[in-house]
Specification:
Blueprint: E1 2-6, H1 10-21, E2 25-29, H2 33-40, H3 51-60, E3 64-67, H4 70-75, E4 79-82, H5 97-113, E5 117-121, H6 129-138, E6 146-150, H7 160-165, E7 170-173, H8 177-186, E8 194-197, H9 199-229, H10 234-241, H11 265-278, H12 284-306, E9 311-315, H13 330-340, E10 344-348, H14 350-354, H15 359-368, H16 380-384, E11 389-392, H17 397-404, E12 410-414, E13 427-430
Parallel strand pairs: 1-2, 1-4, 2-3, 4-5, 5-6, 7-8, 9-10, 9-11, 11-12, 12-13
Helix pairs in contact: 1-3, 5-6, 9-10, 12-13
């Protein structure tokens, strides 16, 4: 393929070298003539293992050229990759001016070329940016001539070449079938699952990936501080933690949903925070975990009240499905809040209904909902009867079956995000907590 790459920074230069290695014709484009001169000479403008050799080989083979002239680059290519910077402004907002400026340049060049052109945005941008690019390009050139996709990169400095060829997946954000096919062809030598999603989803994925990496670094550092205060080797601790790929390093708990609860997580986190305070160890990330967890309960209550419902049916009272454990259950706190707001509440949870509660479990529920037994019902139909809103707190097959048999137009607030609306057509779903 003939591919122009706008922006010869880290991502653009690495991508140019790898594409040339794969046999594509690459034209690097940048406003900085020094970068253009270096690339044209087969020299790297950045320090990265293996990159200099790949660029040298690409130039020698006639597969890499560079220019400051965007019109020349678009005229000589069928695909343009945009890899320009999106630096932060003083208030943290990403500066997208470089992206939009390049879009205008490409649009003007395509107008002159008057033939179809593919544009693949690689810069890290907030959701909705590709749509804004589409609108901008539509003002310059016929929409039939432009095909758009967003394709996030997952390159790490120091291992970028290896990362290019062994990514966790290739994400293609587009609703254009031709764009999808072309991007897949670009990465035909890369062995990785291909995920085709809406552009906004792909744009969000890149931000989330980096935020999660930052959170992991911060978490490990805070654990290291506490461990050190105890006289424990934090590295040894974390080396054991990461060996658990069933829960610790896995997809477990990595789904948006309701708050955590139960007898372990709240108690043990509280203990860790207590010792951190006692030993004067600052752990702001861990300190905010229970705060944001409580916020999830507050948001659920606010959403119920925002929907204007007063007769509420709660599906799931225990902290998770398949147990009668009510200790620190976010559902208990939600019910308590709704009753305080004057709502009439019925609760369906077969495990709790059938249980013989005792000990700390009984003490907890009696302290928070002294008359909880009068709120419990034995059958789902009893809970659904007269309910203005059903609030689901568990991912439970039994609840799914109950909602399949719910009266027409039953309103459901799905706090777990696991109920497919297409299979429960009688229900009107609200899922997002705002």
């Amino acid at each position: 393929m003939k591919i122009s790459i706008f922006g010869l920074g880290y991502v653009g230069t690495v991508t140019a070298a790898c594409l040339a290695r794969d046999g594509h014709q690459v034209i690097g484009v940048d406003v900085n003539p020094q970068k253009v001169a270096l690339l044209s000479a087969g020299e790297s403008p950045i320090v990265e293992p293996e990159l200099g050799q790949l660029l040298s080989e690409g130039v020698a083979a006639g597969r890499i050229t560079a220019t400051t002239d965007s019109k020349e680059a678009v005229a000589a290519s069928d695909i343009s990759l945009i890899s320009v910077g999106t630096p932060s402004t003083e208030n943290g907002e990403p500066d997208l001016s470089y992206v939009f400026d390049v879009c205008k340049e490409i649009g003007a060049a395509v107008y002159r070329k008057a033939s179809p052109h593919m544009i693949v945005l690689r810069s890290t941008v907030p959701p909705g940016t590709l749509e804004r690019c589409s609108t901008l390009l539509g003002e310059l050139v016929s929409r039939g001539l432009i095909h758009l996709a967003f394709n996030p990169e997952f390159l790490r400095e120091g291992s970028a070449i290896r990362d290019y060829y062994t990514p966790p997946y290739t994400v293609i954000g587009t609703e254009d079938s031709l764009a999808k096919e072309v991007v897949q062809q670009i990465y035909s030598t890369v062995e990785a699952p291909v995920l085709v999603v809406k552009p906004a989803v792909a744009e969000m994925v890149k931000y989330v990936a980096n935020a999660w990496h930052a959170a992991k670094v911060t978490f490990a550092n805070e654990i290291g501080r506490i461990a050190n205060a105890f006289g424990v080797d934090g590295t040894e601790v974390m080396n054991i933690i990461v060996q658990d790929t069933k829960l610790n390093i896995s997809s477990a708990y990595m789904r948006p949903g309701f708050a955590y609860g139960g007898s372990c997580l709240p108690k043990d986190l509280s203990a860790l925070l207590y010792h951190a305070r006692k030993m004067d160890v600052p752990v702001p990330l861990l300190t905010m975990v229970p705060v944001t967890n409580s916020l999830q309960v507050d948001l659920a209550a606010q959403q119920v009240l925002r929907l204007g419902a007063r007769r509420i049916s709660i599906f799931g009272l225990a902290f998770k499905a398949g147990t009668d454990d009510l200790r620190e259950s976010p559902a208990v706190l939600l019910v308590k809040r709704l009753i305080g707001e004057g709502c009439e509440v019925k609760i369906y949870d077969s495990a709790v209904y059938q249980a013989c509660l005792m000990g700390t479990n009984l003490a907890y529920i009696q302290r928070n909902l002294p008359h909880f037994q009068s709120l419990l019902v034995a059958e789902p139909r009893q809970a659904l009867e007269g309910a203005e809103l059903v609030v689901v707190t568990h991912s439970n097959p039994e609840f799914r079956q109950a909602l399949l048999n719910a009266p027409e137009a039953t309103r459901v607030l799905d706090l777990v995000g696991n109920f497919a609306t297409e299979t429960l057509k009688g229900c009107e779903f609200t899922a997002a907590l705002k």
